[in-house]
Amino acid sequence: MLQAERRTLHGGVCDGCNQPKIWQDSNKGKMQKARVLVIDDESAIRKFLRSSLPREQFEVDEASTGREGITKAALHPPDIVLLDLGLPDMDGLEVASEIRQWSQVPIIVVSARFQDSDKISVLDAGADDYLTKPFSVGELMARIRVAIRHSKKEDQSESPLFEYQGVKVDFVARMVWKDGVEIHLTPNEYSLLSVLIRHAGRVLTHRQLLERVWGDTYSNEVQYLRVYMRQLRNKLEENSATPKLILTEPGVGYRLKVD
Amino acid sequence: MERERPDPDQLLRQMGSDSGRGRMKVFLGASAGVGKTFAMLSEAHEQLERGVDIVIGYVETHGRAETQALVDGIESIPLQTLVYKGVKLKEFDLDAARRRKPAIIIIDELPHTNAPGSRHPKRWQDIEELLACGISVYTAVNIQHIESLGDIVAQITGVMVRETVPDAFLEKADDVELIDIPPEELRQRLREGKVYVPDRIDVALDGFFKKQNLLALRELALRRAADQVEAETLCFREGKGAAWATRERVLVCIAPNRLGEKVVKTAARLGTSVHAELFALFVESDRQIARLEEDRERVEEALRMAERLGMETARRAGRDIVAEILAFAQSRNITLIIVGKPIKQRWKEILYGSVVDELVRRSGDISVHVLTSEEPSKFRRPKIAIQPVKNKDYAWAVAGAFMGTVLCLFVQGHLPSENFVAIYLLAIAYVGSKAAPQASFVCCLLSVAAYDFFFVSPIHTFNVGDARYIPTFAVMLVVALLISNLTLRMRKQAELASSRERRTAALYDLTRELSRSKNKDEIASATVRRLQSELNVDGAVLIAKGKFRLTPLARSRSHFEDEVKEQSVAQWVFDNGKAAGAGTDTLPSALGTYFPLSSDRGILGVLAVKSIYHGEAVEIAQHPVLQTFATSMTLALERATLAKESHEAKLAAESERVRSALLGSVSHDIRTPLTVIRGAAAAIAAGDDGARALAESIVEQSDRLNRHVRNLLDLARLESGSMEPKWEWHAAEELVGNALSRTRSVLSTRQVSTEISPNVPLVKADGYLVELALSNLLENAAKYTPIDSPIELKVLQELGQLRFMVMDRGPGIPESVREKLFDSFNQERRDSGGFGLGLSIANSAMKVQGGSASMTDRPEGGSIFSLVLPVNETPPEVPEG
Predict the structure, then answer these.
(1) Chain A: which residues have CB within 8 Å of chain B?
(2) Which of A48, B129, B581, B606 is 20 to 30 Å from B7 by CA-CA measure?
(3) In this predicted model, what pLDDT tens digit does every residue of B438-469 receive, in sequence order?
């Protein structure tokens, strides 16, 4: 998938002031690079990432062990961390939770592990997103964009309007349109949709969604999500089996597509 | 006798080569005092000078100074002290000798009987064990202690020798050295006090050491030694054959009487002198039903002796003793049958016929040798087995006589009094059939008295007025005895038959149960259970785990085999492969009896048995059936081991096949994309113009590689058998959606339509597995159908199940491969050019969840691949809002 060139950014979230700096940089030619810390014991992967992340946009720092990664993250705070789970000295999960104790830096897990439980636990431990090896540079860039955008947005006030793929949401009026037609959403449907939009582009685990919409005591009621996602998709998607807006991350959770 | 002294170096060489068994040199003398010990020790000193590792295990110097002088200077193994009934006994220490393990050990007094509590009852058994573990032995024996010569010696000297050595053991001697001095010289030595301490000399000179005794014994010894030389010459002449040149095959028939042992001994002597092969046979017939326990033991003793004398022993059972004997003789090519002369009285012989007569008549070309018995009448045995008489029996007797009298009084006046005798006889007969013989005898006496008192004039007195009644009384008595004897015999017969039947049934049941048992534990516990229920025997099956340690595989509750002493017996049996313990010749003081479980592959373990009654050993009579139990169990254990091994071999072969099939598939499916990637990358590196197209093909092949690796990982997880489905509620369209997005890259060029029946409820499944199965069907459809043909995906809610269908317009599946289409990779080798791993993964993934995968033809052309997921639960309520 050679989609790295596709750089159109849809949606109104970042209209105006909040463009992530990498796009500002590339668009305006300013040389303010994003610091990327790659924590991976495979030198081949580190080399690949260093050579494929555009040099004019990224400054790549490397660590081959978890301990070294944590130290580097503390000494030279990066803008984003790319973290492998299978490290020689400690588990990537521990690295993520240790960094999370003192930093809100976006962490993207890059791992060859394919078991859902690994993904879920690292996401619940505070990682922002994950990518399974092998991945394309395009995918990686997209995830990095989303993660950095969210990290910069955390301290900004939310945009009152969202629009993507014919779906428009007005957070102030609490109204939703699909292709210009107003759609009625139940309170839970609306709440679910707004959580997804607030974290647009990022994966949200079942637990995270359930806790944010229904509350902490419902964190295991996955069937709630299944039923409400079906309702939401029926109202917002053309074909709920091939969703364009609300994507399923099998075994992990859901993600609102923005690219 | 002058024989070449063996060269010690040669001796050592032979020791090394001769299958690890030690060599035995026997110093044979005509009587005590000839100088055996002296000769033995002299030779030991010679060996010592040549550097041979020789030690003394046991030497009896009898206080002789010159002998004592020779003992000094040779290393001795200290004797062990055993305490028996408060008396301290010094005995040869077998274990110390085994630990010391010299090249040669000297053990005097071969016929010695060990103190109770020793491992073996006899010293020659100790020596046998030493030989078996590779230690050579010098030992000494006098001619009168040779078992088969015992009777002759007794005849010559009038002294019955108790301590004997089996001939078969002496046959094993590699060298025999005769220590011979003329009788007069021996008597002179005796007088000089060189043989016994002085105070016993006079008694000895007049008794055992009489000149004619010594002459006879010397002759015996010389003849014996000559026999040995002849056997060796024969052996030498005939090359490496057996030491016995088999000319005659002699069968000894053992009768259940005192003659048994004598017959066996005579046969052994005869057999040795003519170099015959010897067999001993006992035929149990129903004619001998009323046999006494004593007789049985005599038979067992005779058979054991036969075994000790090196004969092959056998038991047969049958109505016709002679026919059994002849059948056995024919089966073993017997040339000579030896039987004892019957000890029945003449009139009995005429009445019942004689086995010997019949045997002589029917034996055909087999010679029959009948041995005399000197004192037949001495061995007469009681005719009737004495049974304990209980009060109940006397009650029967009184009641019988009383009822007879009452009946007679009742019919008195109606019938003539002659009939009363018949009535009494009836009563006596009835009592005889119900109670012990003594009871019918008592009943008879009472009846006679009552008849006399009530019906014989003068009435109401015990006088007999008429002499004609005397014979009547006599007849009544005889009839009573005959009837009760017959009844007893019948009852014995029935008992014997039923006990034999029980034994057979027990064996049959055991065999049947063993054949059903699948593993060693089942076999062992079945045996222990049967021993207890059928034979009243506590058993334990001990199997070697690891190197030497015997551990119980199954055992009864008594755990008698746990005691240290019992354990050591079991270990001995395991090490030596011979039965031991109570009732045997080895370690008879043990409580349990131990049978080795010996198979072709060696000793598997030990069967330990004891009576279920506290502190009692099993009866000797039970040994044969227990031996059979042990054999049956050994066979079953071997069968189980073989079955296990063949199963494992099959599994190994199967996994080997799967491995090679997988490797083939992996190498093809991984190398192909790698080749493309490598080539394309190299071309880009070399500055090829079409870099973009090359890069695209790299991406494409990487995806292919990735898909294949994922398949392999999925397969490994599924086939490991440890896959536990992760049950969760799922929405059908989400499962379909995920499968579609998984296969996006292969389906990107295809037209795919989905149709999901509305309101399909949530379904409980492992989402990952359903998506895996579905995406494999989709991938297959994309791979094997024309690129422009549509693929349809349908989800149908059916009764109790949910069906996912992938429908294509492809060429269909040929009949020949359909059957194995979904087979596991384990069962059908697939080339990647065929149907890949996809369908077997789909099938496995569904099966794990209790569902299935199948394929049908599509009526309008193409195929339908279906996945069926069972729906067993209604989804939980989800609150609206």
Answers:
(1) 1-2, 114, 116, 134, 136, 186-188, 221-224, 226-230, 233, 239-243, 247-248, 250-251
(2) B129
(3) 777 788 888 888 888 888 777 777 776 667 77
